[in-house]
Trypsin-like peptidase domain-containing protein (Candidatus Flavonifractor intestinigallinarum), 413 residues
Amino acid sequence: MHGYYYDQNRVYPPNDPGPRRRGPGRPGKAVALFCCALVLLLAAAVVLRWVGDTLSPREDLFYSGDERPRETPYDWGNTWDWEDEELGETTVERAPLGDNVTLTLTPQPQSEAHTLQTIYQENIQSIVSIWGDAGTSYSFGTGVVMSADGYIITNAHVIEGCSSLEVILQDDSSYEALLVGMDVSTDLAVLKIDAWGLDAAVFGDSNQMQVGDTVVAIGNPLGQELRGTMTDGIISAINRDVDVDGYSMVLIQTTAALNSGNSGGALINSYGQVVGITNMKMSAYDDTVEGLGFAIPTTTVKRVVEDLICQGYVSGEPTIGITCYTVTQEIAEEYDLPLGVYVDSVQQDSDAKKQGVFPGDVIVEANGQSITTIEELLALKEGMETGDVIHFRLWRSGAYLERDVTLIEQYVP
């Protein structure tokens, strides 16, 4: 069961019910207006549909981040069933590239830990709110000030599909944000606002963190009204491999409470240093899960952010150009699929697309090696370079096909 989900928050303007979805809602009053039994039945059906589909803006605060519909024939265990509407392309105006701005990771000091009150005061001015216009909806998340001249770090999924972005500082001043760059595979994005003298966060070295270390998270859970919320916990695991939306991420696991809206916020050590960018939590389809939050370590953040600022994309990252999921034994039996890796989407400009790999294909072999999990596919790709070729054996609608796919450099224009 795929229990992880992106924690992007989708909210809707006042008087706009937002997208229709199935789920619990509020009782309607229309039924009382009908007197005829037949009409009552029809009206009840309409009201039940409305009950399941219509949400107030407050209820929409509990949307998770992956609003893109899955064309897979099975449920991966996400919390909600999404409407059949894909997020559009991210069309935020781009910022100029090439600044020589770097992210410095400061070693942990050899001194006493700070109090929680001190940590909050040291960091709160470096935490910003982010609003994104995604056409039929709005996105709300958190960001961390990287530099005094207006570079902001957040999650890629917070701004995905947006056409414009707004950054709100703690003093309520608001700035239109330009997109420097975003990298979906690491879930990181950099924004630029026309501001000076900002309070930049102090970033620490996540490699120095150990299981059991105290941390706090500061962000904007459930929207603007609760912005600047701090929660505390410990590091419960480091170098945790998490597969989400076809990408493998190595994350810090924490017990600090994270909720919708915390995405892009700061995970901070006991010395007031940001050691991670919070980006997801664990959600179980049929159970309650608490205290399982995740953050992108600053060692990853530094590498990605510096590439984005310099050139707008992350260099040296070969990709097949697909997102995919493991077909488990249970899924294989239920949907009559072979064990392997299910192709969920294919990048438009990838060689995989040119060679005729389609969503719905199941990868069963790569370079003559049997592939039954996404981890096996990623391990095979490890160490390969852009331009290398992988020979795939695919299953499609009961038939097996052969495809040679050239790895391309991962690039988000």
